[in-house]
Give the backbone structure.
Amino acid sequence: MEVPILEAGSGPLVLCLHGFPDHAASWTGILDRLAQEGYWAVAPAQRGYWPGGAAPDGSYRPYSTGQDALALIEVLGREQADLIGHDFGAAAAYAAANLDATRVRKLVTMAVPHGRQVLNAFVSDGDQQRRSWYMFFFQTAMAEAAVELDDFAFIDRLWREWSPGYELPDAERAALKETLRAPGVLTETLGYYRQAFSPPADEAAQALATRSYGAITVPSLYLHGADDNCMSAELSAGMDDLFTNGLERIVVPGAGHFLHLEQPKTVADHILGFLNS
């Protein structure tokens, strides 16, 4: 399968993995900063995010998107890369580092913590259940119609709620909706949520899934917006035991869920300080 990518610069490879409701284009500013610092920055479309890009095995679980990241490193002709992941892209980055740590030099993740505390919060934390209402709604058959209604007003609502005080520029908003409007894409992207609460059926996939949730053995940086109304920053506290080669955790003030767009200079400075150290 050919994967659409955005890229900038040349040098050591850095992969930037996007989440939902988002697409590779939101990395443009970070790609440019990385390129200026001497990196080859590449942002692929995640499986399902383009016509004909549906998961070949039907899986949208992190072990599958993590395998995609590892495969892309190889296809791009590199032995190793730094990984930057946001939202579902963070889940893919964790999985990739767990499935083959030799291919990942450093790990940067944003907005979605690593560890069982996230799943536990969906079960027991009323505040997080309120924030995550959309995940449960996406399990229903009416989700596609609701999301598409009135020029994807549902998507506007998520961005507004998750990043209070931030307004995605009109041109970027239109480009994102164009991605989601493409034939078949919305249903495929909702697959990430529809598979989030159930394990894969076959034993080999179950084993991969288990491995993908293990302890991270590469140096790691975690960033979370202080005002994130999608995933509470508090869920990222206490992750250190799951990162055996060091974890730097930073809560970014004045930022919500899409912190790399809301505070681009601050986030890029943190990322580059970590990658260059």
Observations:
- Residues 255 and 262 are 6 Å apart (CA to CA).
- The first strand starts at residue 5 and ends at 8.
